[in-house]
Amino acid sequence: MNPFPLIFLILQLPSAVASLPAPVNLRIESLNLNHVLRWDPGPGSPPGTQFRIYFPIFGSREMKGNPVNSTSCELNLKNPEKNHVIAVEAFYNSTTSPRSTITFHPVADTVIGPPLLSVARWGTCIQGNISMPDLGRYTKAINYDFSFTVLWRKGNDGEIQELKAHNGSFILSNLEKDVEYCIQVLPKARVNENTQPSEWNCTFTSISEP
């Protein structure tokens, strides 16, 4: 009997047992500066594998998160205007995987929106007011310097026209009487391209007096 195949298998066994695959497919879902980190277990991860998240805090220090059994975690990042390198590692019994990392810039990468659009009519004019979402404690600290593209049309199938607004209000004037107009607003920000439009908001101009 040739002993070499058996010896080869025995030598390979400890490394196979000791290795643990790193988490894969790291991604961050972020809406209005509320962040959720998600990932998938590495291929071949044993049942019962747990995970630990590492993220930067003040200066160059690093905070180690509590172990989690799930594959998602809410992130509370203190400096939203800086890049953050976030790492996830798997561990099982006394074995730890390599770390997987993702880079995230909260201010630039979060999705902003959708805005709230309210409209009021008088005569043949429609005034619109735009309110952006609340960003929590960052609302006053971060200046996104929004501008707005206002899209409007007659009813649901009219030709779409647009105008620019650089603050939170606008007026559509010289419209037809007793006609339904639908309006949508798309915000734009210099430091963030991930903005959502408002819902279409429809209203009628006033009926002409006899």
Automatic annotation (TrEMBL):
Superkingdom of the organism of origin: Eukaryota
PROSITE patterns: FN3 (PS50853)
GO cellular component: plasma membrane
Span of the signal peptide: 1-18
SUPFAM superfamilies: Fibronectin type III (SSF49265)
Residue span(s) of domain Fibronectin type-III: 22-110
Alphabetized UniProt keyword annotations: Signal
InterPro entries: FN3_dom, FN3_sf, Ig-like_fold, Interferon/interleukin_rcp_dom, Type-II_Cytokine-TF_Rcpt
Signal keyword on record: yes
UniProt GO MF annotations: cytokine receptor activity
Protein name, UniProt field: Interferon alpha/beta receptor 2-like
Organism placement in taxonomy: Eukaryota, Metazoa, Chordata, Craniata, Vertebrata
